[in-house]
Amino acid sequence: MSFIRKVADLLIKFFSLILPNILGLYNAERAMMIRQFATTLGNSKKSKNTNNYFISNIDINNVACRFYKPKNIKNDCLIIYIHGGGWCTFNARMYDHFIENIIKNLNCYCISIDYTLSPKKKFPYAIEECWNVIEGIASKNNEILKDISTNNVIVMGDSAGGNMTAVITQKASKHEKYKNFINGHVLIYPYLGSWDFNSESFNNYNKYPLFSVLSPRLMAEFILIYLGETANNENVKKILESDSITGNFDSNNNLKNVAQNTEISPILADENILENLPKSLTIIANYDILKDQGIIYYEKMKNSRKSFNSENEINIENFHEIHIFESLTHGEINISKTASKHVASLITNWLIKNNFAK
Question: CA distances (Å), 44 to each of 86, 189, 232, in order?
Answer without folding.
Answer: 18, 24, 31
